[in-house]
Amino acid sequence: MNSTMEDNFLLCKGCSCTESSIFNSLSSEDLDYIDKNKSINSFKKGDVLYREGNRISGCYCVNSGILKIYKTGFDGKEQIIAFAQKGDITGYRSVLSNEPACTTAEVIEDASICFIPSSIMFSFVKKNSDFALSLMQLTCKELNQANSYIKDIAQKTVRERLAEVLIMLEDTFGKDNEGFLTISLTRAELSNIVGTATESVIRLLSDLKNDKIISISGKRIKILNKNELNKISNPY
User: Fold this and answer.
1) Residues in contact with 214: Cβ distance below 8 Å, sequence separation at least 6, in sequence order
2) 6-153: which CATH architecture?
3) Which residues are CB-neighbours of 68 under 8 A, at least 6 positions away?
4) Which tens digit of pLDDT belongs to each residue from 67-107?
């Protein structure tokens, strides 16, 4: 983990993340208070913000970069359940419930992260009903996503889940100038999202490539036929 003097000038009132996050309900004075009490750090790919089972003393707001949020099985295998990118916060549920972290947050694209102590979060929940409601809505949204994931694991084939994940990655992170997904994941990470063996993902990607539904260049993936991918994902 590295800190820079430049990071210290990332003030909440001027942060574009605030406009689309739970913090947009806070006043200028509240944002100033966060600025005086938060810390900002730069993280490199592979750095871990917190680990499953550990106590954390605040939440993390992503200013730039991408995190993967995952749980670890008994066999040590990761199960990626979410990503966090610019404007997203993570770690807040463990803070609010006063329980050890139920997931691990790891950087997969160099990131600048604001750390906000739990005491600040609790003070805003108590005095700002809009902020408390935003947190509740965010929690409900994540619970709904978890329920959808459980349903997919139970009812969809691996091929259908892979198609759905590829669509989600494009919708969430977008495409670069060449049309490839901007997020670059290893085949192991992709399999950890889908919930299957890496070998199965490699084989299914090859099948989709042969069917000219996607193209592949190293780790990069480009969706060539999104309509067909939607049909495969069996959304209904």
Assistant:
1) 166, 205, 208, 221, 222, 223, 224, 225, 229
2) Sandwich (2.60)
3) 80, 82, 83, 105, 106, 108, 189
4) 999 998 877 788 898 999 988 999 998 988 889 999 999 99
